Description:
Chain C has helices spanning about 15-35, 55-65, 75-90, 120-130, 145-160, 180-190, 200-210, 230-235, 255-270, 275-295, 305-310, and strands at about 1-10, 40-50, 70, 95, 110-115, 135-140, 165-170, 190-195, 220, 245, 315, 320-325, 335-340, 345-350. Chain C is α/β, with parallel strands linked by helices. In chain C, strands 2-1-3-4-5 form a five-stranded parallel sheet, with helices on both faces. Chain C has a four-stranded parallel sheet with strand order 7-6-8-9, with helices on both faces. The interface between C and E is large, with 36 and 40 residues. Bound molecules: adenosine-5'-triphosphate (2 copies) and magnesium ion (2 copies).
Amino acid sequence: MLEVNRVRAGYGAINVLWDLSLTIREGEVTAIIGPNGAGKTTLLRAIMGLIPLSQGDIALHGDSLAGRQTWSIARHGISLIPEGRLVFRDMTVEDNLTMGAFPNSRRAGVAHNLARVYELFPRLAERRRQLAGALSGGEAQMVAIGRGLMAEPSVLLVDEPSLGLAPVMVQEIFGILERLKAEGRTIVLVEQNTHLALSLADHVHLMQAGRLLLSEPAPRVDLQRLHDLYFAR
Amino acid sequence: MLQLDNIAVRFGGLNVLTDVNFAMETGEVVGLVGPNGAGKTTLFNVISGLVRPVSGRVVFDGRDMLRAPLYQRARAGLGRTFQIPQPMHELTVRENLRVAQRFGRGRVDEARIDEILDFLKLRPKAQADAASGLALSELKALEVGKALATEPKLLLLDEVLAGLETHGKRLFMQTLLALRERFGIGILIIEHDIETISNLCQRVCVLDFGKVIADGTPQAVFEDPQVIKSYTGGAAHA
Amino acid sequence: EEFVVGSQIPLTGSLARVGNGMLEGIKVAVEVFNARNTGNTIRLEVIDDESVPAKAVAAVEKLAADKVVALSGGYGSNLIGPASEAAEKAGLTYVTSGGVSDELTRRGLKHFFRINNNAGYAKAMAGLFEEMKLSSVAIVYSTKDATEGLAKAVAADLEAHGIKVTLHAFDPAITDFKPIINKVRLQDRAEGIAMVGYENDYVGILRAAKVLKPSSVKAVVGVWSLATAQMAQEFPELMPQVYGTAMLPFPVEFKSEAGRQFATAYERLYHKEPDYLGQFGYVQSMLLFEAIDRAAKNGTLAKGGLSEELRRTDAETIIGQVTFDANGDNPHFSHRMGQHQNGKVALVWPDAEATAPKQFPGVPW
Amino acid sequence: MKPIAPVAVLAAAYLLVPLLLGGNAYLMTLLVSALIIAGIALAWALLGNLGGMVSFGHAAFFGVGAYTSALLSMQAGLPVLLAIPLGGLGAALAAVAVLPALRLSGPYFALAILAYAHIFRILATELKSLTGGSAGILGIPGLPTLGGLELGSRNGQYLLVLTVVLAFIALYRAIWRSDYGLALRAMHDSEDATRVVGVNSTLLKAAMLFVSAFMTGTIGALNAHVINFLDPDYAFSGAWTIVPIAAAIFGGYRTLGGPLLGAIAVYLLDQLLFKALFPSGHQIILGVLLGAMILLSPNGLLPWISRRLQRRPATEVRHAAA
Amino acid sequence: MTELILQSLYSGLLVGGAYALIALGLALVFGTMKIINLAHGELVLLAAYVAYTAESQFGLNPLASIPFALVIVCASAVLVYLLVSRIRVNRELNSLILTFGLGIILTNAVLIVWSANIRSTSSAWLQDAVVLGPLFSMRSEVVFFVLSLALAGGLWWWLSRSWYGRAVRAVSSNRDAAKLMGIDPVRTELVSFVVAGVLASVAGVAIYSSSVIQPALGHALTIKAFIITVLAGIGSMPGVLLGAVLLGVTESLTVTLASSALQELAGMVLFLLVLFVMPNGLFGGARRRG
Ligand SMILES: Nc1ncnc2c1ncn2[C@@H]1O[C@H](COP(=O)(O)OP(=O)(O)OP(=O)(O)O)[C@@H](O)[C@H]1O
Ligand SMILES: Nc1ncnc2c1ncn2[C@@H]1O[C@H](COP(=O)(O)OP(=O)(O)OP(=O)(O)O)[C@@H](O)[C@H]1O
Ligand SMILES: [Mg+2]
Ligand SMILES: [Mg+2]
């Protein structure tokens, strides 16, 4: 459903993605892995329209997203849980979560979804009136994840959800992703913890230096080969 | 070399740390773990001087540090990283290290800066602006670089390994241990990856709700039922 | 022969209003003088000093470079001070009515002339109060230079006559005068209020007084810019019975030919009643132009004799008699007091000039 | 820039300008006024670029410097050339009162210092016995004659103010290029990060405040002896804050030469060109110019010019110390 | 003495309401966009002059001229935003000089159109005294105090409860993250400028009705508004109201107990004292460090 076609993108004069093509299938969990600095985050940012494409195209259900503004892409049901948290520091935890349901079509479910997020993260329920800027690193990560869930997206892009979370919480998060997968949502997961990623994924893409090195259904992936590819510089 | 007595920290009505006692020796490598929001970062803030505790004592290298301003603690040999990277935004990566070295250590040594850049694989990014132009992992590396450039006696590392690829983590740990050997520095490290902590540290201290609930060898600590319940969720053996 | 006279004057910035008012009078003077066919004509070169001292100095220097024969203009003691010093350096005669500070005429400048001064205002204001035989007066004044100097002078004068005086200085930025007037009402229980400020201050003070209605007060007296046609028209609610300095009644009635000449020219040019700013600008310029004419005719103008010629002035003008002393001050200057009566302004002090008896006691509320 | 360029500019400023324009008192007065604004603009930019503090109250230092020097030369009878730097010191001393404001950041600091400017103005009005109150001081002694050079003449004033401004640029540049300059720039938006690597940021910021206050005070003192007049409204006028800020940003506040260039460009364009075209509406053109500049070249005039001339990046502050 | 002090407190309260009205629009734009609109005072002044024209030419009561002021001032505010939104680099500082330039243009345009004369309402109804026991005021002061309360409350509700208001805060807090939530930052910012225009309109009419206007006033209004915004703690609307009233009361008490010459001094000293005790203003939240 989401086609990335020969995409080139980067930051100003620095190009990061080099003619990258990949397909994300509906209802599947697609894992994108690769060493640090490979351009995984950059790819997700490009999909969301946060950085412009200098070449190529990205299409959702055949509609081109290139040149579209980020907010309009977001309203189309694609949601990104960003790396590095990107929470609204000057707003309360509850307002942060609520903003996740900003698109008109999502507002009806706010109360219900809020309750669900608080159930998943009781820690946030305790802190609902606190400014997000005062949260601990892990708590802020919970806010970012909870906020992403509030949007009930049809495509969920997740950038390193386990970052900064305690092991119990990591298990929780992957439990949630598991459930979303079972509900039939499309998920794109960027994760350094290959082990965890593979346990959830239907399909795996390995990126390195802005290119796609490997693209395989998860069951066929050989960990050792993956490992070798990782470090083949 | 570091000793914390009865540290208590409150924010508004919230007790973030209560009666924390902790000590470590020169050259020790200690892991600090605990659930999210347990107060680990806050403890680092107390040690480095960003947060003043409502009560307690901070002794480093035999000096009472409680009233010492941030920069004095840094010059005395306390180096720290920030969990959410805080590069010096207006400077390049190299200039970041230069400032740390010039003011934390006292004089500039370009060769050392190059060494640090190489070690952290930041060489290609040396001229890049710190604020924009770095991936998250690179920003974390820069955090470590700044701390190392001050030539600390005690290194406080706050989740610097999170988000690193497995191989990178290993390399990093080896270098840290080498540093400890060479300069006899102590390391206090916050990390959520149990495997890493177990491999790196002789000793682990667990915080939960602002209290120390366990302190001992990794094996002992990670088998403690209370720790399993509140923190690892049984993932220790994963 | 045509002579160029310069005018350095604030047309924008904080003094824009008064500057423009004075300029109107200066322009009328040019009209009237040129219509006289004396053989000499005047052309005016105006530079806006933007209410900034450095720009006032630059303006004078520009005018000097453009070979003007003299300067008529300036407003605000802080602009006139440096500007007239620059004029002195350039050997240019500088005539003004825009700054009443005593300092200006204490500097011993050879080429500086002023037709009005603080003392003349103080004399009029204090004279009116003394005539009313009030026992106590509250002086409410702005901490600006001109107003403060005047307030102190009036206070001294009144106290010398045994009138009890309380002083209330206020910062020029303030807009709510109720707390001050309430002090006048409850603490001072003064019989008269003297306002020394500018239009916006008067409006604020009168509004506060109308709200609080201090019962002890029998008269409210202000100074410049108050007993004017404009105030009568714009604030008809606030003005009844209020006194202020005024050279002319409104509607204007001129007894003298010179006055009528001025009024007709003014109305032809600006389609409105002349006001006091215009009058002063007119008088200062007219005296200057006449001196230029005289100097040109007896050949001293080119030799720098204009200032001496001007110093010989002894004229009866629409603001009274004008002569200049060694410092360029006009010792005869004495203001008159007007009172708003039924939408008009009547002259009520001194008796010799009065056009109507004063309505006393009387307040706007 | 090639070394030849600054030398040429200097030669033009010191020789060509007095030779060609020296006879025109009006032009020289405008130039002196522009240089006065340039001096404040420079001090403001220094505090912003190095101290990381945007100030909306430099009039405070300007006024204190002016009053200090005027009073010292008139009442204590000090020679004017000695009183002027003492005026700068007086302003630096006044900056001691501002020290508590260093705890504040961003707009909180900017406005706190504005409050100081107001307070100083009111004090100058109220302390009548010392300052003459709102009547101000007339007849402040002008600049003396030094070794045959008549500093009090328009040309002399121009040369003296120019020299002072250039000296300030040199000082600014020296600080900027030092490791302290690096540390100071490092503090922007990341003060804690800088302090945990051993930088005593409070001390450095205080030092920049003193330097900036000294510069502004010196300029204020110079202006007092040029215009020979002071009163509280004038000495502490908001114009001494806002016009230099506009000039600095216009010229390129992140460059060493930008504030100077901006002040001269804005002031001369406004007074010579716009005013001649529209005697009383010229400020509107100035407004349009300021706005257009920001939209067309957000980094300011100097970076724009050097881009045009050399097709190379301007000597912007952030790269200068590399 | 008690009567004096009571009146003084009451006067200060009402003046504070007027201050708040002037400050709200600036506080909104500054709090939500980090843009200091140095032309805000001029927008307020523009509204005041619209009210003047409506009254002097068409005999409209100033209150009835608010709709006209709204149209003109909001259009101007939109224009200001469209220009400001074109700034790509260093928006916080560059918007300062851009809006300063716009302020100069507006001031001089006002001077040309309406001349330098002072203006104020001649409506007797607005100037009438309202007496509550020992407390005196002009009717306009009371009317606009109530309006000020209502607007501050409404603004607070809008920012903290409505979707759009929250979006405004989200954009200011983190533009990229806001875009990811489906928020169009340009539209939201435009909306806050329009709201600021509405506030400026009411403020302008209030000033015209209670005190005196003249072309050079705009700049002073901006500074006052700015000081109150910062005193409040940036972004806090209840703070604006409280800060403004605190300032108003301090000033009037200074007049009553000391001298009115010291009123500005007292205001500034209060401002500094508050900041030294609360470096982030009355309602500004402290940030977490580390
Ligand atoms: N300035 C502050 N104001 C209010 N609460 C704060 C502040 N700083 C920290 N806290 C709270 O204190 C608690 C401890 O925070 P801390 O950052 O120390 O946790 P942590 O153990 O480092 O967690 P993590 O593993 O998620 O990083 C958190 O719940 C946080 O919300
Ligand atoms: N804002 C930026 N400007 C310039 N270059 C950038 C910027 N952000 C990232 N880069 C560079 O782009 C490359 C890819 O970065 P990206 O963040 O996409 O990597 P990643 O695969 O997500 O890595 P990580 O595992 O560290 O998150 C890196 O070399 C990085 O230095
Ligand atoms: Mg990434
Ligand atoms: Mg933490």
